[in-house]
Every structure is written in C-alpha cells, then in structure tokens.
Amino acid sequence: MSTKRLSETPAVDPSAKINDCRLGRYTEVGARTSLTETTLDDYSYIMYDGEVAGTTIGKFCSIASHVHINLGNHPMDRASQAHFTYRARQYWPEEADDEAFFDWRRAHPVTIGHDVWIGHGAVILPGRTIGTGAVVGAGSIVTRNVAPYTIVAGNPARLIRRRFGETTAERLQALAWWDWEHERIRRALPDFRNLSVEDFLECHEAP
Q: Taking a C-beta distance cutoff of 8 angstroms, is the pair 39, 22 a contact?
C-alpha cells in the first residue's frame, strides 16, 4: 500500500526543473522532469523524465514517464533551422536572441482537458488539444487534436475507440465532477469505485 501523502502544497522532486509554471493542489512532478511555462491543475501528476512546455493541463490528469509535450518547433522556413538563428546569444554574447520566434512558439500552446491519461513515452506536438477524459496510448505521437473520451494510439496517433457513447461523454462533461470540492469527491469515492458510469451519472446529476 502507498505511504505517499499529497497535500495542497505541490510535491516536486528535487531533481525536477520548474520554470514559470503554476502548480495546483495535490499535484506531483516526478524526478528529472522539466516544466516550462505550464499549468498543472489540481490533482494532476507527471512522472519522471518528462518534458513539457507551453501547456495547460487540467485537473486529475495522469501523465506517465518519458512523456514529451509541446517541444518547440524549429524555423523550417529559414535558410537554417538551427539554434544559432534564434538563440544567438549562446554563440555570440553581443547578439540578442530572437524574441519574436519564441513568441511564435508560445502562439501554439497545447491544451489538455481534465481526467486525461497519457501513457509512457507519448509525444504531443505543438498546438494540439487533448479532450477531457481521453486516453493517449504509450509511445503514441499525437499530430492531431484528440476528442473527449476517446482512446488514441500509434504513430501518428489514431482513434482506437470511444470510452463511452457521445451522450454519456456529454453528461460527464456537464457534471464536471473534477470541479467538486475536495470533501465532496471523498464522499463520492465509493461511487467512483463501485458504480457503472451510467449509475454514477444517475446518482450525481442534479434532479
């Protein structure tokens, strides 16, 4: 049984690198993982050896190890796409870096919904959206948006199947249980564990 205890203070491994990020309550960042300009919302975690930039991650997301999200594109339209064209200061201290290029990168963020599961070694390319409740299979390369409550896998990632029918998925999104208070989620824990999704919805939807 796990002896780990999460709290409202994010749990960040000492070897992780966090740069200009917002971490929510009950979040966890694993060893050697790098987060840059990223939001990791309440109850979400990313395991070890991950790299994430310019991404908004919703609540209750489970991100496995070695996942790479929104690693920056290179300027393929230039005569050279190498670092020196936009990180010039590393090579010539008197030269300025190309801030307009970095602004262009920021204009292509990744957005991940709530309750998403991303498997080991997956790659999410810039500008993509992963819908709430989706599953991205291990080793997948996501080149297109992923619809809510669908399972995708492969290179490039393709639809495997829907987790639930469209009506059930819409009801779950309307219920938005991920926005419930901490104690309400605790009270509903037996229902999360034991009820089918249809019975869960019947039990918790407003009359």
A: yes
pTM above threshold 0.85: yes
Q: Order of strands, edge to edge, in the sheet holding 135-136?
A: 11-12, 28-29, 45-46, 62-63, 117-118, 135-136, 150-153, 158-162
Question: Which residues are annotated as catalytic?
Answer: 74
At a CB cut-off of 8 Å and minimum separation 6, what does 166 contact?
none
CB 142 within 8 Å of CB 122: yes
Average pLDDT, the chain: 95
